Amino acid sequence: MTFTGVIGAVCMYPLRAIINVCVAMRIHPNTLTLIGVLINVAAAWALGFGRFMLAFVIMLIANIFDFIDGKVAHLLELQSEFGAFWDSTLDRFSDLALLTGLIFLYSKLGRSDYVMIAALTLIFSIMTSYARARAESLVAKCKVGFMERPERIVLFMIGALTNRMAGVLWVILVLSVLAVANRIYYTYLALNRRPMPSREGVTGLFTRALFWTDERATIPYDAWVIAILAFVWLTPPDWLGDPTASGPGLIGLIASRF
User: Fold this and answer.
1) Considering the chain, what is the average pLDDT of its residues?
2) Residue 216 falls in which region: left (phi positive, over 0), alpha (psi -120 to 50) or beta
3) What's the whole-number mean pLDDT along residues 131-147?
């Protein structure tokens, strides 16, 4: 079992209890979805005023609702096409709200550079979801690209908890651009009945990293997670021109010794 798999299994213990309570109370999953997005709007407000620790707590609560709605729908046998549409639509609203909160914060701080970075992150985050939805109207499945919504939300929470939001934005932006490119390329290959890129040999290692098709809780997934966390936590905020954090960071402290 990979370390991301272990974390997921540990987190499921309290979530199962919450799911059981919701099932016992017969709370409709669409209601849970709505509650989750409303709480995320409160998180966006906290981000907009630079209250990152409060935003982390609110996002943690909001995404409990976001995670359990599908499980509750399954257990109550209330799955429906409208429920899937409702969930997907409100997920996009949550994404937009959180990034809009950051845009508001950086505009107040007079940081037009990070206003642009947050705006581009917003665009490509939405395009990642749109590219998959549009592709799957043409091909059976288009689940390629690393940076999907669960990864974005977890990174937002990490950025808020550790005050490393600048590093998080750069990671989400770059990997969202790559995910959109992956989905466009995958759809092109599928529609034209062309073979997918080879995953063999040295070239295949680069293909696996840049044309992401692996599942979560696998060794390649763990490798990406470790690389992302290393960048976010070790890169000095001063190097990124972080509007809300400062200091040399661990890399800067090590470099100063040499």
Assistant:
1) 92
2) beta
3) 93
pLDDT over 90 (residue 49): yes
Sequence length of the chain is 258
3-state secondary structure the chain: CCHHHHHHHHHHHHHHHHHHHHHHCCCCHHHHHHHHHHHHHHHHHHHHCCCHHHHHHHHHHHHHHHHHHHHHHHHCCCCCHHHHHHHHHHHHHHHHHHHHHHHHHHHHCCCHHHHHHHHHHHHHHHHHHHHHHHHCCCCCCCCCCCCCHHHHHHHHHHHHHHCCHHHHHHHHHHHHHHHHHHHHHHHHHHHCCCCCCCCCHHHHHHHHHHCCCCCCCCHHHHHHHHHHHHHHHHCCHHHHCCCCCCCCHHHHHHHHHC
Q: What is the pTM of this model?
A: 0.93
CB-based burial, 84-119: b 16+ in 10 Å, e otherwise: eebbeebbbebbbbbbbbbbbbbeeeebeebbebbb
Task: Give the whole-angstrom CA distance, residue 162 versus residue 164.
Answer: 5
Please give the C-alpha separations between residue 222 and each of 5, 67, 131, 180, 238, in angstroms, as whole numbers: 9, 21, 25, 21, 27
Interval 140-182: pLDDT, tens? 899 999 999 999 999 999 999 999 999 999 999 999 999 999 9
